[in-house]
Amino acid sequence: xxxxxxxxxxxxxxxxxxxxxxxxxxxxxxxxxxxxxxxxxxxxxxxxxxxxxxxxxxxxxxxxxxxxxxxxxxxxxxxxxxxxxxxxxxxxxxxxxxxxxxxxxxxxxxxxxxxxxxxxxxxxxxxxxxxxxxxxxxxxxxxxxxxxxxxxxxxxxxxxxxxxxxxxxxxxxxxxxxxxxxxxxxxxxxxxxxxxxxxxxxxxxxx
Length: 207
Fold this sequence. Notes:
alpha+beta; Chondroitinase Ac, Chain A, domain 3
């Protein structure tokens, strides 16, 4: 038979051990830092339909072109006199970068004018994919004008192509507004009907 004093010491030792283990576990758990929140990418914007992520240029394609051409500043510019009564179009680009087009139907322009279209497929300004500049700036149309924009140089990693949208910055509200957009995966273009010249970009759903 085990003497009572040894039994009491055994029980006390067990209790001390359990308390030590519990305290250690509690301390270890509390020492575990909460996982840091993932930083929001710089190219995420707020739109009237929620957060979206601006499409960016694929750096591999830019690097490849720079290797072959010695630069990465390809710029396509075109200006054309378009008579409002007849309409017309401007297309810029090449087979390597893709083609972008703006087309005016009859009387969609408020008056005959020289229309400017500058497109820098590889450049990003203020985080936007491709430098898309239309002019004269602020021109408002009598009807929706057809525009096709190439995303051939875009980084599509993790991008749902069905979620690609053209967005424009409303200067009055400061909010990006989503435009109804059609995606042509075969030609790698998006098409949209615009009501005026403004600052446009390509974006896709975020989370």
